[in-house]
Amino acid sequence: MKTHEDLTAAVRRMQQQYEKGRTDRDILRGWVLGLPSYPQPHGGAVDALKAWFSIRQSEVTPEIRTRDIEMLAAVADPSIATVPGGI
User: Fold this and answer.
1) Please, are residues 14 and 28 in contact by the beta-carbon 8 Å criterion?
2) pLDDT value at position 61?
3) Structure confidence at residue 1 (pLDDT)
4) Phi-psi region at 56: left, alpha or beta (left = phi > 0; alpha = psi -120 to 50)
5) 23, 40, 46, 86: which could join 17 in a potential S-S bond, CB 3.0 to 4.6 Å?
């Protein structure tokens, strides 16, 4: 993804697919971990998202799914100043 707009569109698309159950967490995890680094305003949120998904979850609980979605939203919307709930 070359621009912030490309990143935002791709993250929103993946978030929607994940929310609707069209993408499972393992596929999403691989996609997230393949993201390059980005400068601000998305850089910190992308780094936090990659750190979150680098942690293997033995079970994907509703709380983990909610956290996944919150972190994706933080990347998609640079007006969110901090990543909800930390890592």
Assistant:
1) yes
2) 96
3) 58
4) beta
5) 23
Question: What SS3 string covers the chain?
Answer: CCCHHHHHHHHHHHHHHHHCCCCCHHHHHHHHHCCCCCCCCCHHHHHHHHHHHHCCCCCCCHHHHHHHHHHHHHHHCCCCCCCCCCC
Residue 78 tokens read as 């640079």
Q: For 1-10, what is each residue's pLDDT tens digit? A: 568 889 999 9
Among residues 61, 37, 62, which one has the least CA distance to residue 49?
Answer: 37
